[in-house]
């Protein structure tokens, strides 16, 4: 039987790796729901040694409860090691909300995320073991200190594309084989990724 306890919000701690984000609209909707119906979903919390009171699922609900000065929240405890804790965190949040993809890239292995239910087009890991951010960091590291290279007339044509819903955005991401996020406002097709091998031709003198 599922045992739910009332725990002080001050005793709960957010997971340092939690990649979940919410839009302002999603945040407002969730806050309105909690105001109207209360905390109908318990916070999922770890009790494993060394991970005591780390939140696994319910970070956004807990933050809203703290903002509303709620002293206690309903909690369901699990005993999970760090690997299973992180996997459950991803699985609980997979189909809702937004993601901080930098945190995903930094705190999780690609194979883990694919196993947890992500698709390659969602993560931008197309046939490569590095994320787009890691590719960019690698290129920036190798080009550091090199003179700027400018080339005119790189753009042949620019299109503005509008989407009616998130499903259409996902279909578009599949078509162009790129990760489409709210933070990115423009894209190259095919994707513009500097060839790291070209940078290796340059040597410091």
Explain the overall architecture.
- Helix content is 39%, strand content 11%.
- With 205 residues, it is of the alpha+beta class.
- It has a 4-stranded mixed beta sheet. A two-stranded antiparallel ribbon has the order 2-6.
- A hairpin with an 8-residue loop joins strand 3 (43-46) and strand 4.
Keywords:
6 strands; two-stranded antiparallel sheet; four-stranded mixed β-sheet; Conserved hypothetical protein from pyrococcus furiosus pfu- 392566-001, ParB domain; alpha+beta; 205 residues
Low-confidence stretches: 125-129, 195-205
* CATH class membership of the largest domain: Alpha Beta
Percent of residues in β-strands: 5-15%
Taking the sheet with the most strands, its summary is: 4 strands, mixed
Per CATH, which architecture of the largest domain? Alpha-Beta Complex
Shape: globular
Per-chain topology:
Layout: E1 4-8, E2 20-21, H1 24-37, E3 43-46, E4 55-57, H2 59-67, E5 72-78, H3 82-93, E6 98-99, H4 101-107, H5 110-116, H6 120-123, H7 132-143, H8 166-176, H9 196-199
Parallel strand pairs: 3-5
Antiparallel strand pairs: 1-5, 2-6, 3-4
């Amino acid at each position: 039987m599922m045992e739910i306890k009332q725990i002080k919000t001050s005793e709960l701690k957010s997971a340092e790796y939690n990649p979940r984000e919410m839009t302002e609209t999603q945040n407002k909707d969730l806050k309105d729901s909690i105001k109207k119906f209360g905390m109908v979903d318990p916070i999922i919390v770890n009790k494993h040694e060394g991970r005591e009171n780390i939140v696994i699922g319910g970070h956004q609900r807990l933050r809203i409860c703290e903002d509303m000065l709620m002293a206690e929240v309903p909690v369901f405890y699990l005993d999970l090691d760090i690997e299973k804790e992180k996997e459950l965190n991803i699985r609980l949040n997979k189909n809702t909300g937004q993601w901080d993809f930098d945190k995903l890239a930094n705190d999780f292995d690609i194979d883990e995320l694919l196993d947890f239910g992500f698709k390659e087009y969602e993560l931008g890991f197309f046939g490569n073991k590095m994320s787009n951010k890691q590719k960019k960091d690698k290129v920036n590291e190798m080009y550091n200190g090199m003179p700027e290279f400018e080339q005119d007339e790189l753009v042949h044509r620019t299109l503005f594309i509008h989407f009616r819903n998130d499903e259409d955005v996902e279909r578009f991401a599949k078509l162009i084989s790129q990760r489409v996020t709210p933070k990115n406002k423009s894209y190259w097709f095919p994707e513009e990724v500097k060839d790291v091998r070209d940078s290796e031709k340059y040597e410091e003198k």
